[in-house]
């Protein structure tokens, strides 16, 4: 299986992994960090201290200082590593998925009458593997402490259930954007999930004097470095992402001026305002939840930098980038465009590879004779949701399920549509006929979830065959 102990060990042991290339050194060299202050008082700098530090924003300086504390852990705990690796192997191993990979990504279950084509890249990414390993190691390393996690570790029900079994307390949400941190006491251990934690949460944890185990994916930190660079250059960050997504909440917390656009339609609204102005009140009302405090579109859309949530649809991000570039070119002329628009691609490799692989399945759908494509992954998982969009846009019947139980013994399927609705509908159109299907899974989906889903389909078909014989 891909979740090999050596891979995880390599992630955790490698110091290089935690710096280059993800630290965006070109923008903000680590060597510029000011002398570390210890956690006895507060690691968060005052505005005056910040002014004295050149080359990075106060928020970034605070974040880096916080990360230097002895109570901040991001490299795991070696003494429990082998035990955790075994636990992970046991939890996530998947025989059918291994067979699929060994048989050139295609298997046929003749008894059931089902042929399966697996996307060439799918399932757990290294960022998620690393996050799970770090969290499980924290549980073993602190057997007598109270452990908390500030959000779901990743968007996967099995992994989150496992952490609950391990008595890791999930910080509860209370109202929109609010969480109840009152259960965290001095000396407790707090795990930060793969999509990171906001500046305000880090500041609060600093004051509470707790041990922090940071599992933030370095690709997410790369986005934070990018928006920091925007701030330093006096640019407003335009973030292609969902303003309510945990990763984007963390990213925007490191910005001064920002606006989030979730898709091309919203990007066009912003581009139109950049070029032609418009009804400011209407604009602010529409984007009220997606902008920084005191946002003024008349003054803050003249110089912008684009960044994106790591898991967005790559093609859309590219198109949005081109739109803003053209808009600035129209408004200020080709010679001035670089003064008004800057773009860095912060989509992670894992997202891109999984999107490319499902595109390949889609391109071969006719050749393979695919009846449908199954996408397995958490319903809150942004990268999984984008995997569904690709076959959907190509007009291929496709379903996004979050666990095997979504496939009912009565031949129904409960799935999340591209519009975010959860619906139940008839599944296999003709149970008497053989089925050819494609399958993929999101970056936070264990292979075991794919295996269980395939087993459920095999069972459904086999039951029908038995009834007929
Ligand atoms: S999908 Fe990308 S950003 Fe998210 S955890 Fe995986 S590697 Fe990191």
Automatic annotation (TrEMBL):
Q: Which cofactors, by name?
A: [4Fe-4S] cluster
Q: Which Pfam families match?
A: LYTB (PF02401)
What Enzyme Commission number does this protein have? 1.17.7.4
Question: By its UniProt entry, which CDD domains does this protein fall under?
Answer: lytB_ispH (cd13944)
Q: Which GO terms describe its biological process?
A: dimethylallyl diphosphate biosynthetic process; isopentenyl diphosphate biosynthetic process, methylerythritol 4-phosphate pathway
Keywords from the UniProt entry: 4Fe-4S, Iron, Iron-sulfur, Metal-binding, Oxidoreductase, Signal
List, in alphabetical order, the Gene Ontology terms for molecular function in this entry: 4 iron, 4 sulfur cluster binding; 4-hydroxy-3-methylbut-2-enyl diphosphate reductase activity; metal ion binding
Domain of life of the native organism = Eukaryota
The pathway is: Isoprenoid biosynthesis; isopentenyl diphosphate biosynthesis via DXP pathway; isopentenyl diphosphate from 1-deoxy-D-xylulose 5-phosphate: step 6/6; Isoprenoid biosynthesis; dimethylallyl diphosphate biosynthesis; dimethylallyl diphosphate from (2E)-4-hydroxy-3-methylbutenyl diphosphate: step 1/1
Answer whether the UniProt record assigns the keyword ATP-binding to this protein. Answer: no
Residues making up the signal peptide according to the UniProt record: 1-26
Q: What class of enzyme is it?
A: oxidoreductase
> What family is this protein classified in?
Belongs to the IspH family.
Indicate what this protein is called per its UniProt record.
Answer: 4-hydroxy-3-methylbut-2-enyl diphosphate reductase
Species of origin reads Nitzschia inconspicua
- Taxonomic placement: Eukaryota, Sar, Stramenopiles, Ochrophyta, Bacillariophyta
């Amino acid at each position: 299986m891909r979740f090999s102990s050596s891979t995880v060990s390599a992630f955790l042991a490698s110091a290089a992994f935690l710096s280059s290339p993800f630290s965006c050194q070109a923008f903000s060299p680590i060597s510029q960090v000011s002398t570390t202050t210890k956690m006895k008082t507060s690691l968060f700098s005052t505005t005056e201290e910040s002014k004295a530090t050149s080359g990075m924003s106060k928020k970034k300086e605070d974040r880096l200082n916080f990360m230097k504390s002895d109570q901040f852990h991001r490299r795991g705990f070696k003494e429990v590593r082998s035990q955790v690796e075994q636990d992970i192997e046991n939890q996530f191993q998947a025989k059918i998925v291994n067979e699929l990979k060994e048989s050139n990504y295609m298997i046929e279950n003749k008894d059931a009458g089902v042929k399966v084509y697996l996307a060439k890249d799918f399932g757990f990414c290294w960022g998620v593997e690393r996050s799970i390993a770090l969290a499980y190691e924290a549980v073993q390393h602190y057997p007598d402490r109270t452990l908390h996690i500030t959000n779901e570790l990743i968007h996967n029900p099995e992994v989150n259930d496992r952490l609950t079994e391990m008595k890791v307390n999930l910080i509860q949400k209370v109202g929109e954007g609010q969480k109840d941190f009152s259960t965290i006491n001095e000396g407790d251990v707090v795990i930060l999930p793969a999509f990171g934690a906001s500046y305000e949460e880090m500041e609060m944890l600093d004051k509470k004097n707790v041990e922090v185990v940071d599992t933030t994916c370095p690709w997410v930190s790369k986005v934070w470095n990018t928006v920091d660079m925007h701030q330093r250059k006096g640019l407003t960050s335009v973030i292609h992402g969902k303003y309510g997504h945990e990763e984007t909440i963390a990213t925007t917390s490191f910005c001064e001026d920002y606006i989030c656009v979730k898709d091309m339609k919203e990007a066009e609204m912003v581009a139109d305002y950049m070029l032609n102005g418009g009804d400011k009140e209407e604009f602010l009302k529409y984007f009220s939840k997606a902008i920084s405090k005191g946002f003024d579109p008349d003054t803050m859309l003249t110089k912008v930098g684009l960044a994106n949530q790591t898991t967005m649809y790559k093609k859309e991000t590219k198109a949005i980038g081109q739109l803003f570039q053209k808009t600035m070119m129209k408004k200020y002329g080709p010679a001035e465009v670089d003064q008004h628009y800057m773009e860095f691609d912060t989509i992670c490799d894992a997202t891109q590879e999984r999107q490319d692989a499902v595109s390949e399945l889609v391109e071969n759908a006719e050749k393979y004779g695919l009846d449908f494509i199954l996408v397995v992954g958490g319903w809150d998982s942004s990268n999984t949701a984008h995997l569904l969009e690709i076959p959907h846009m190509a007009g291929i019947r496709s379903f996004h399920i979050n666990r095997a139980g979504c496939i009912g013994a009565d031949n129904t399927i409960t799935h999340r549509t591209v519009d975010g609705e959860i619906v139940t509908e008839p599944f296999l159109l003709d149970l008497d006929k053989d089925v050819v299907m494609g399958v993929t899974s999101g970056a936070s989906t264990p292979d075991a979830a794919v295996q269980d889903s395939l087993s459920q389909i095999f069972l459904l078909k086999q039951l029908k065959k038995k009834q007929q014989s």
